[in-house]
Amino acid sequence: MGNYYFKLAWLSLKKTPLLSLLMVGTIAIGIAAAMITITVGYMMGKNPLPHKSERVAMVHLNAWDPAEPISHRRNGEPDVPSMLTYRDTMALIAADRADKHVPFTNFAATIRVEDADVRTAQLHEVRSTSRHFFSVFGAPFIYGGTWSEEADTQGESVIVLSKRENDRLFQGADSTGAHVIVGSHLYRVVGVIDDWQPTPRFYVNAHEMYKSTSPYFVPFESQMRNNLFSPTSMPWDCWGDGPTSTLQEVMLSECVWIKLWLEFETEEQKHEYFEFMEDYTEEQRKMGRFNRPEPNRLMSVTEFLEEEGAVSEENKIGIGFALAFLFACLCNVMSLMITKFHGKGGEVGLRRAVGATKQNIAIQFGYESALLGFFGGVIGLILAQLGLSVLTEMYPEYHANVMTMNFSLMVSTILLAVGTSLLFGLWPIYRAVRVQLSSQLKSL
Amino acid sequence: MKDLAPILKTLWKNKTGPMLLIMQIAVAFTILINISFMAVSKLHELKVPSGLDEEVLFSLRTNFPVAPDENAARIQQDLLAIQTLDSVDNATAVNSIPLTSWGLFDSINATIDPDSYIAQAGTYTGSKEFIDTLGLEIVAGRGFEDSEVQIAQLDYHERPNSILVTQGLAKWISREDWAGAAGMTVYINGQPYQVVGVIKELVAVWPDWTGNERSIVLPTYHYANEGKLMIKAKPGQLEQAMEDVNGLLMQLPGRFVTDLEKFKDTREKGYKGMESSLIILMSVTVGLIMLTMLGVFGQARFTLMKRRRQIGTRRALGASKSHIMRYYVIESILVAGTGVIVGSLMAVLLNVKLMEIFRVDSVPFEYFLYGGLSVLVASLVAVIPTAYSAANISPATATRSV
């Protein structure tokens, strides 16, 4: 029976090509606009660590100038630094109250293969962190693995490369054991990670969330030992009177410049950790630090994304606009459908007269609107892909991942198109089915 | 106007189609008004003058591969060497480069009490020649004297006590008379600073910050092992100067030079995202108008089918072609007009909501006027071909089957 209805629907669409084209085109444009904005919003707001987003949390300690807060949140309340001082980071790591600690900052350095010419060295951003970075944030290794615990505590000169850099420097070979020169220091390669781009890159602040991941990773302590310092490119913030011209001075200062993420085995432990942070703050207060009233924060991945506004208000409004646009398109399609089904009054009358029930007619027209929706969806999907590739060109600061539909989004596109055109077809179908038999047959 | 009554009656009898069209136009109009307003505001932001001598400026980031205690000497040596190049007019070290989204900001307070907060401002520091190199214009008070400007270690013991502010900030400090800001004292991080002069324009580092016309300049450049330089080339020698400076700096072993960029490119990169948003907003505006036209066209075209007989009858009874056309045109104006009125109400509601979120201004009245006019014109353009062909229906064919 289904085949028969499809055939009828197809024939009916072919009979009025201009009208069908108009309807399909309108659906396609509306769907494309809606799906482009939804894709960008969805990819930006996606939970990057679905299985443990509540067990991975970032420490915000309120070690800041008693005279003035570091900045203000969007709602006007005083904010707390999202980075830590070196001494607090070290104290929290030494206390060892979480399952895994991931402190990090970054620096820029020229990097080349050990025996390559000095002039081949390129300046790159290097992430300095702990060995747990990869397992906590889910970066997969293709060669080797992360560095050892000793490397973290001793600050050994070991390095992990991204696949892209490994392809460039070692032509994609297993480079573990080889050496590269970072600035003027010899580093041994211990691992290579696969192409890895969490979207959003949730562990940094909002304005960096959609940029590419760092191509190099070294132990945090090795940055300190080798005195690698990039005051003009790393994120940091200072107050007070201490000198901060060199890395050593920054380490001793009250400047905040290290982000600290933690992973816990259970959410319970996370709550206990917050208690511990309070105790730590209390202890520091006795020494005259932490003299601000705002509370500390221990923010899970989802809380941090929310606070940072990973999906900006602009995006949400964009989605709203696009959905309103789709609604306007569908109103247009609906009135076209009414015209179309009205014109088929004679056919309806005839079919009813030879025994078709009202349901049969409704199903027939239902198939027709579904078919319209399907074609609209397919063309809309193509238009959306075009639109997204144009957007990728237009916003080079966003990683292409943000502008890419995954499979479930593609399926949703078609479903949305079919679903909405069925929904907006209900009224035209109802009107068509109500047709008076006699009035139609008379004029045949 | 005697057509009005029958038109309204017909519309009312067959209300689904016109209602849908009204709804469609209303929604389209709502979006149209708000989006075009946002687009125009964006355009204004894009046109914010940087205040810099953009044609001859370029910037770079480099390191000073020497022992920490030689950093200051190295920077001064480098700057001197760059300034003596034939293709270079002037050079300065800066803490951050305008429109690159990396820099400092400070809260400006009127007294030592943080509750006397005035505004936030982007913070620049530079070595001697900062004002001249960037091509800034002092419009009140004075620039820095040589004795005030220093290269210092990044500790706040050697604190300057004079600052320059932009005119955009001066308006906040001294509300009645911005020029009066020169000579006033403001507090930053609990420390007093005297405003010695007002700069006409100097854009802050964040292109999308709505307050980016507010900047301050401190006369103390704090050095470290890395630094950013801005260099003014002699007119017409920008490319040459970039090459010369790069060559000069790279003579030192262990040196890197990166982000070597014309300021024109920096500006373009900084505003690229906003420019893209603007293009999107404008194309959506055009798309909406097209969609409205399509809707009106479709509606008119396909009701024409239904009305062939009615029109034929009217023509047979003596209605002229212009009567038929007038009927269609008035009908379309009625429908589009209702859509615009409903849409205006919705647009105002949406605008109030948007004002809460973005703190944008309310949409001025002209937008409704011109927006409404353009929707009416668009729907007329869409309906006229149909009205024309309707008028040409011959009474004979239309009434044949009666």
Layout: helices, strands, pairs:
The complex is a heterodimer of chains A (444) and B (402).
Chain A: H1 2-15, H2 17-45, E1 56-60, H3 86-95, E2 100-113, E3 122-129, H4 133-137, E4 141-144, H5 149-154, E5 158-162, H6 163-170, E6 179-182, E7 185-193, E8 216-219, H7 220-225, H8 247-252, E9 259-263, H9 267-286, E10 297-300, H10 301-308, H11 313-343, H12 345-353, H13 358-394, H14 407-433, H15 437-442
Parallel strand pairs in A: 3-8, 5-7
Antiparallel strand pairs in A: 1-9, 1-10, 2-3, 2-6, 2-9, 4-7, 5-8, 6-7
Helix pairs in contact in A: 1-13, 2-11, 2-13, 2-14, 11-14, 13-14
Chain B: H1 4-13, H2 16-46, E1 57-63, H3 71-83, E2 88-94, E3 104-109, E4 117-125, H4 130-134, E5 138-141, E6 150-153, E7 162-166, H5 167-173, E8 185-188, E9 191-199, E10 215-218, E11 220-223, E12 226-233, H6 238-249, E13 257-262, H7 263-316, H8 321-358, H9 365-391, H10 395-398
Parallel strand pairs in B: 4-10, 6-11, 7-9
Antiparallel strand pairs in B: 1-12, 1-13, 2-12, 3-4, 5-9, 7-10, 8-9
Care to describe what's here?
The complex is a heterodimer of chains A (444) and B (402). Chain A is α+β, with helices and mostly antiparallel strands and 444 residues long. Chain A folds into 2 domains: 2-47 and 312-442, no CATH class; 56-308, no CATH class. Chain A is built from 15 helices and 10 strands. In chain A, strands 2-3-8-5-7-6 form a 6-stranded mixed beta barrel. In chain A, helix 1 crosses helix 13 and helix 2 (17-45) crosses helix 14 (407-433). Chain A starts with a helix and ends with a helix. Chain B has 402 residues and is an alpha+beta fold. Chain B starts with a helix and ends with a helix. Chain B folds into 2 domains: 4-47 and 274-398, no CATH class; 66-252, no CATH class. The mean pLDDT of chain B is 85. The chains are: A alpha+beta (444), B alpha+beta (402). The interface between A and B is large, with 55 and 58 residues.
